[in-house]
Hints:
Elements: E1 7-13, H1 19-25, H2 30-35, E2 38-40, E3 57-63, E4 66-68, H3 69-80, E5 82-88, H4 90-94, H5 106-116, E6 134-139, E7 149-151, H6 158-169
Parallel strand pairs: 1-2, 1-3, 3-5, 5-7
Antiparallel strand pairs: 4-6
Amino acid sequence: MTAARKVRIATASLAGCFGCHMSLLDIDERLLDLLRLVEFDRTPLTDIKTLGTRGPCDIGLIEGGVCNAENVHVLREFRAHCKILVAMGACAVNGGLPAQRNHLDLRDILSEVYHTEAGLAHGGIPNDPELPLPLNEVHPIHEVVKVDYFLPGCPPSADAIWKFLTDLLAGRTPHLPHGLIHYD
């Protein structure tokens, strides 16, 4: 008799603060319960750096908005390897705090930071092929790829993540009661 294959979960982070990943880790001892049902692929809990080397993931949790060309590439690759994609947190859902720059012109921002700000010796705007090209605006991830579920919050609490994942793993449409959704 073969054991049933565990659901494989992976995570990724784009432009944001990594707070959603911290909330995932904050489910604390419930991680042990979760490990009975899932296998973690690329997450802060593993040392796996490349997604897809072990096949597709069943559930991908991604936090952060899309602010540069590298974010677009990472997001598209991640989506291609995840059967279900979950936008986790305000930055992924609506651009969050990084999107506060959207009402400003990118050229003005770069000029202010690199030409006039004290302490930078009036250097030039970085122009190195190693640096990702910034986008004119920060975008929520659903503007770039198809998203299957949205897990709001800034960040979503550990309890919200736990409820969301356990609903999904049980085959239920995730439903978060009002008390589990907050923006701190």
